[in-house]
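Can't paste images in this forum, so I'm doing it all in text. The chain is below; anyone willing to post the predicted structure tokens underneath?
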Amino acid sequence: MRRTDPETGAARFHHSLFGRLALAAARAASGRDLRAAMIVALTACAAHPAIARADSLAAESPRIPEPMVFDLLRPLGARAGEREVNVLAVRPLRRGSTDWAPEFEYAYADGQSLELELPFENGRLTQVKFALQGTFGTGAGGRWIHGWQYIGQVERGSATFRNSLLYLSGYRFDARWSMLSMAGLRQVGLRQFGPTSLLLNHSVFYDVDPETVLGLEVNLRQDIAGDDRTRALVIPQIHRRLSELTSLQAGLGVEFRTNRDAGLVAALRLIREF
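Text version of the structure:
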């Protein structure tokens, strides 16, 4: 599989289209229009061939597992044509409803993926989510890979729209140990700038054998504009491949929220590739 070398092809600002988009992003940011800056930055990532395409990536990318709760749209550096359907279910053990969501993921080009997700609360559809993901390239002798992810969420029955833009970075230390980090912002609203949250995810993985992976995932959402609330989830997990195309992930962790007691949370994801 070919990957982009970030030191040779990932920063060609002389490309006319990308240069115009970068200039527009800078102007939007300098005018304190953060929503416009986010949209322009996403457009630049998707439009520039050295970033959005993985044509000139190295022959092999590191194999980094995906976090169970805050997963990727196929792994970074996925081959064109890869497809996956999966269902995630998350439930607090003390009280509350079951949140679950079927997802469809598709790599429409090398290093580029999209996702459609339908989140439910018990039996009620609550949102429609659409996401895009791209691979920047690899480094450190093929041990490191990085990229970006955009998520758009529409609340059912309201005009509430959420934009999230994240930077992704994965590193494989050796045949057993690897990690993946995600960092970005979530902003509410389209026409008017609304509450903003900092999103962080850090996961560490240990490959027990080719079919079994143990992981520890830490998710953090911190409101930095608007409501001053914090939500954190720490969830150990196990990933088990059941067949060549089917796998199961399960975890039990602790969730922390502002003005609430910590509580146990169980999660389960069933995955089918095709």
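Residues 16-30 form the longest helix (15 residues). Residues 1-32, 46-58 have pLDDT under 50 and may be disordered.
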